[in-house]
Amino acid sequence: MITFNIAQWRAWAPGLETVEDWQQWSLSPSLLDSGDAAPDVSFLPAMQRRRLSRLARMAFSVGWPLAEGIEQLPLVFVSRHGETPRTLDILTDLAANQPLSPTQFSLSVHNAVIGLWSIMRGETSEMTALAAAGDGLEHGIIEAVALLAEGSPAVLLIVTEEQPPAAYADWIEDVPFPYAVGLLLTPGTDWQLCLSTGSESLPRPEWPHALNLLRTLASEQTTCQHSWKNRLWTWQRTR
What we know:
- The chain is α/β, with parallel strands linked by helices.
- Helix content is 32%, strand content 24%.
- The radius of gyration is 18 Å and the shape is globular.
- The mean pLDDT is 92.
């Protein structure tokens, strides 16, 4: 079991930006029309904004306000699938024997977001990019709590997934719509996270783990459980 506090949280999905929006969605969760909607990142200079994909914009939109006023804030970035639209563009150019864009490639790699974050914020703290499985949220929490145990007063955790292109539909089935969740974690005992395992696979959850956690954060629930393969994660809010 590990313990921690969630000092603040923010989340974004098409049409859902405020705590009140997420509270309403949590009462009756449903699919959202992703379209071309993207979060507002007008706090960044225009030249910097142009380099950001929607995935990066989502990460910045939830993370930037949480980091405001905090110096030397470690970051744990989690995404299972990463920049799928950029990756498909690169593969399409390869298939057509077209020259590849160095910029497109450099911004498609999994740690591109934390690189951009470091540059734009002038942040030199430890940063980690995780490409985890369906329980990447929990693995990100473990990484963040380890940083807290090493003495960091706070750690920023960002989980985000982009709506994959139609070409990936047969392989990526766990992204109902684009979303980003930001958690500002601090030392404490307000939350407990426990893991239990078995020999058999558990039923697949209806919603990705980060969205399930949002339903708990936006309500008065004190417990939620997330399963992935044979792993069962139990979240307990103690206060």
